[in-house]
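Work Package 4 report. The design task specified in the project plan requires that, given a folded chain encoded as structure tokens, an amino acid be chosen for each position. We show below one input record used in the internal validation round.
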């Protein structure tokens, strides 16, 4: 499995490095590290499968996928992965995305770990940095006091409306703490969530603006 992992990493690193800073290869490395930390408390977890899924989880992201890019399945097949490995990894990847609250069901311990690992990277200081990096890359406003966050939306609505960066906190990031699945993921999310709330409080103070409802 380690040989397959290295071959896959060699294939996808250049692709990730063309993504903006919110979803670049450093993001992948952080998610893998998060996943390893969570898995350390869950000895039943299959770490090689977790690492491979973490590595490939954003390759098919519709925000970045371009015609001609290799899919996650293509990458694994070309690296020599067997049918079982491909199926397990693709199943994990399907359950990672938030999709405006319309996420796929988790079907394995490994899926729970990778989802929590990815969501941890959307929280705390790094989550704040990534949010504004993505917003900047897409030309979005920092904040919009007239914008009301949506509490229910389809995946298409979630992806199509270009809200301000601060609104994204209320539509996704501040919800993640309660959506964590693993015990360790929940523990790690607590402090990161608290930090984000403090950041938004400070931003309101500095701008003299009021953004959304209470989120403590």
């Amino acid at each position: 499995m380690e040989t397959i992992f290295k071959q896959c990493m060699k294939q996808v690193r250049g692709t990730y490095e063309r993504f903006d800073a919110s979803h670049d290869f450093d993001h992948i490395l952080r998610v893998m590290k998060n996943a390893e930390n969570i898995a350390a408390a869950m000895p039943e977890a299959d770490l090689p499968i977790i690492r491979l899924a973490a590595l490939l989880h954003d390759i098919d992201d519709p925000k970045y996928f371009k015609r001609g890019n290799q899919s996650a399945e293509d990458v694994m097949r070309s690296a020599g992965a067997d049918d079982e490995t491909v199926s397990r990894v693709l199943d994990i990847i399907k359950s990672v995305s938030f999709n405006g609250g319309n996420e796929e069901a988790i079907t394995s311990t490994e899926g729970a770990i990778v989802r929590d690992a990815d969501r941890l990277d959307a929280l705390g200081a790094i989550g704040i940095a990534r949010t504004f990096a993505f917003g900047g890359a897409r030309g979005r406003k920092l904040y919009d006091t007239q914008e009301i966050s949506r509490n229910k939306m389809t995946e298409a609505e979630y992806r199509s409306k270009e809200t301000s960066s601060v609104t994204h906190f209320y539509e996704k990031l501040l919800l993640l703490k309660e959506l964590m699945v693993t015990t360790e993921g929940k523990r790690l999310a607590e402090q990161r969530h608290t930090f984000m709330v403090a950041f938004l409080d400070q931003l309101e103070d500095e701008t003299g603006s009021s953004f959304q409802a209470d989120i403590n």
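DSSP finds ten helices and no strands in the chain. Validation will be extended to a larger panel in the next phase.
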